[in-house]
Design brief:
The protein has 55 residues and is mainly alpha-helical. Helices cover 80% and strands 0% of the residues. The chain crosses the membrane at residues 24-46. Keywords: Membrane, Transmembrane, Transmembrane helix.
């Protein structure tokens, strides 16, 4: 799942750039960074929760 980070960043950045949101470069950059790290953080949280339960 962490390998989806760059793909998610590209998709989110492209969508924010396409639909505007009125922020320009910095809005697109921040949205891409958040969207890129979301799959990585989600995967780590999922893995942490499953290891916490035990076998």
């Amino acid at each position: 799942m962490p390998f989806l980070g760059p793909l998610a960043a590209a998709i989110v950045g492209g969508l924010v750039g396409q639909f505007g949101l009125g922020g320009g470069f910095w809005t697109v950059l921040i949205a891409a960074l958040v969207g890129g790290f979301a799959p990585i953080v989600g995967y780590r949280l999922w893995k942490w929760s499953h290891h916490r339960r035990g076998p």
